[in-house]
Design a protein that fits this description.
The protein is α/β, with parallel strands linked by helices. It has 21 helices and 12 strands. Helices cover 51% and strands 12% of the residues. The strands form 2 sheets. Strands 5, 6, 7, 8, 9, 10, 11 and 12 form an 8-stranded mixed beta sheet that branches. Strands 2-3-1-4 form a 4-stranded antiparallel beta sheet, with helices on one face. Helix 15 links the parallel strand 6 and strand 7. Helix 4 crosses helix 5. It comes from Microbacterium betulae.
Length: 463
């Protein structure tokens, strides 16, 4: 028998196989689980219950990968990096089932051993079997206590227990402390580890919410059940999946003041197009003109498809946003800068991102973010407004960028009250404390608002 031999008496159930395929793609080719998993579920023809199981297995394993690797290291007496990657993913999948689900341990062990056998042969299967039976002998509490004893600091211990890298924990603590809410860190980390429900947006003037209204966004709703993608398709995109925080920050710009017919708007970093479609619907209702820009051709294609739902002629550019905005000085009345960022505000939706991102990513992104915001200010007419948005609460990407650009532009711009703008569009009051530096920006949080951690700052060019 060769290295990919199989045993006929062990059959890997489809939900586990789908989850494993996703884990392998994330590990080997930096795939995005939230994009790949739905395709694999459809390809396997999974029903609702099996699809839910595959989703829990894939997302749960990815979410707590760091913690599971520490447990595997102890059970295998070798570092996770020394284990063949396919075998390591099979071990991670089994450890999640053994320690965090109601799946019977013998089923988790046997099927993950079979996955290891299929990927790497009988010797790897024997190794996986020994490791997993060692894990299954002790309780989750025992393993967490044991792993905690290996921590070299309180932050490392918290990182192992909450499955967050230490640098992310420290960034979150600083962002919360800037609002005088550092004591909320544990609640935030816990919220990051809870799978969020699906939130929908009905494009205003083109569709009506079809389920339970969201607590804050006037265009948001939640389905009681069923396939959201089927609803998106049947509505021809006029109803779409979109986090409530994303809806709120877009509406804060479009509804900041009454729209004057003929206003010119720009979505500077538009891909993949969710906020662009919402802006387009708002522009259509108010008589405004909208342009969009996305430098990556594939993502620009997604923007165009998103805009198909709105009967408005929107030109989609494919240029570097910095040069495009700078070349159109004084042309626009409202500009959205949904800046490329680390995405640390959406870890509950993209669980693999917490292990993929590094502090160096922040250092690389901040100059780009500042340049985009600076160019957007150049592009607006006197009296025009720029909304600077990130799906990250990291202070360097949020308040730090705004502060740097404001210092560079001097008295040319003034900061508007983003918290008041969000309150004005929200259906219910939002808990938005004033930052300790006295600035007027706003930060949404998963644990406090049930949204992704979206940041919003509003800057107006003085007339």
């Amino acid at each position: 028998m060769n290295g990919r031999e199989r045993r006929a008496d062990v059959r890997v159930q489809l939900p586990r196989r789908v989850a494993f395929v996703v884990l392998r793609a994330v590990s080997s080719s930096d795939a995005y689980a939230n994009l790949l998993l739905p395709r694999e579920i459809r390809r396997a023809g999974l029903g609702a219950a099996d699809a839910a199981l595959a989703t829990e297995l894939a997302y749960g394993t990815l979410r707590r990968r760091g913690t599971y690797d520490a447990i595997i290291r102890m059970a295998a007496d070798r570092d996770a990096s020394a284990i063949d990657p396919p075998v390591l993913d099979a071990l991670r999948l089994a450890v999640h089932q053994i320690l965090a689900t109601r799946v019977a341990s013998h089923a988790a062990v046997n099927e993950s051993v079979q996955l290891a056998r299929e990927e790497a042969g009988s010797q790897a299967a024997g190794f996986a079997n020994a490791v997993l039976r060692r894990v299954a002998r002790d309780t989750p509490g025992d393993w967490m206590a044991r792993v905690g004893e290996t921590a070299r600091s309180e932050d490392e211990r918290l990182g192992l227990s909450s499955a967050h890298p230490v640098w992310v924990i420290r960034a979150f603590r600083r962002a919360l402390a800037a609002e005088g809410r550092a004591e909320e860190l544990a609640s935030l980390l816990e919220a990051d580890n809870v799978a969020p429900g699906v939130t929908m947006a009905a494009l205003p003037g083109l569709a009506a919410p079809e389920g339970e209204s969201t607590p804050h966004s006037p265009v948001g709703f939640r389905l009681g059940g069923g396939d959201p993608e089927r609803l998106v398709r049947s509505s021809e995109g006029r109803v779409r999946v979109q986090d409530e925080g994303s809806q709120l920050v877009a509406l804060a710009l479009t509804r900041l003041s009454p729209v004057a017919p003929g206003e010119r708007w720009l979505d500077l970093c538009a891909g993949p197009g969710g906020k662009t479609a919402l802006l387009a619907a708002e522009a259509l209702a108010g008589g405004a003109l909208l342009e969009a820009n996305e430098v990556a051709p594939a993502r620009a294609g997604l923007v165009r498809r998103a805009l198909d739902a709105v009967p408005l002629d929107v030109e989609v550019h494919e240029e570097d946003g910095r040069s495009l905005a700078a070349d159109r000085a004084g042309r626009y009345d409202r500009v959205l800068v949904d800046a490329p960022c680390t995405g640390l505000g959406a870890l509950r939706r993209r669980p693999e991102a917490r292990w993929r991102k590094q502090p160096s990513d922040v250092a690389d992104l901040v100059p780009v973010q500042a340049a985009l915001l600076d160019a957007a200010i150049t592009a607006i007419a006197p009296g025009g407004v720029v909304a600077y948005v990130t799906c990250s609460p990291h202070l360097a990407e949020t308040a730090g960028v705004v502060r740097e650009v404001r210092e560079r532009r001097g008295d040319e711009v003034e900061e508007l009250d983003a918290r008041a703008a969000l309150q004005a569009v929200s259906l219910t009051p939002l808990d938005l404390p004033e930052p300790s530096d006295g600035s007027l920006h706003a930060q949404l949080w998963p644990h406090r608002h049930g949204t992704d951690a979206m940041f919003l700052a509003l800057l107006r060019k003085r007339a």
